[in-house]
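Hello again, I could really use a second opinion on something today. For a while now I've been wondering how a particular protein folds. Please have a think about how the structure follows from the sequence. Here's the protein in full, and shout if anything looks odd to you:

***
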Amino acid sequence: MMPEKKILVTGGTGFIGSHTVVELINAGYTPIIVDDLSNSSPQIINQIEKIAGVKPAFFKFDLCDSKSTSEFISQNTDIHGVIHFAAFKSVGESVQNPLKYYRNNLFSLVNLLESFSGRAVNFVFSSSCTVYGEPELLPVNEEAPVKTAESPYGNTKQISEEILRDTCTANDKLKVIALRYFNPVGAHSSALIGELPIGVPQNLVPFLTQSAIGKRGNTTVFGDDYNTPDGTCVRDYIHVVDLAKAHIAALKYMENTDAEGRYRVYNIGTGKGNSVLEVIHAFQEATGVDAKYTIGARRPGDVEQIFGEVGKAEKELSWKAELDLPVMMSSAWAWEKYINQNPM
């Protein structure tokens, strides 16, 4: 019988975290969730069980609490790997409240790394394409310079990557893969888990679905005067299930790579950009629902366009995005209808 491989998933009841927990179970791992539930619902644990047939272990505490973090890690000596999602993630909010983001996103990471000091562990970090700022060349690849961030949120991802790289150099037992995501959207095909923003959604697709179901007014398109084909911002949208599977691929890569003290980064996206208006029209076509929108002013911190070169992940991690924009939109809508009938 194969030994149990326990994977600590911080922020595991969140949008990407919950989908990754499902994929971990599907791949034969034993996920352990730590989350402070500041931006998620405890009901997600039961939803994961409905999908995967296994109820993951769950512990509620704040990773910014160094004592709680250290005690938890010291009591769980058989943790094989870590997938670190726990962070605040709203670009707009980070511009308005930068210290909230620096404290939460950086303290939690440092506490985790200090708690694992001297232990062999495979560490997957939830990074972001925001580290590239406004890229000079598209598609942007992993060799592109990390430019001045457009927002405090983006800067926390840049600083976190630097912290991980330096720690990896100092601790040869630590292996790290930072996954630079593009824009995750969609929901699990069961419609039992999906993006569950607290308050007004800051991202396009959850606002779009909430607007379409009648919870919100028109979706605001922030600017239509950018230098893009239709004037609206362009992003690389990736289905959250494809993104979740990339974390499994990253863990398996580190398990099968002998070199220690390695720090690697990978773009995780589809390699294709879609504008805000293209996404809205794709939603209308995939669901048959009229999505009303209003053109507004540009939003501080928004990059004009970004999409990624993803060949490195395809080659080295043997991973590739498979689900297209219509599937992203139809699954997001199925989730919205489910959560409208089954509030959490």
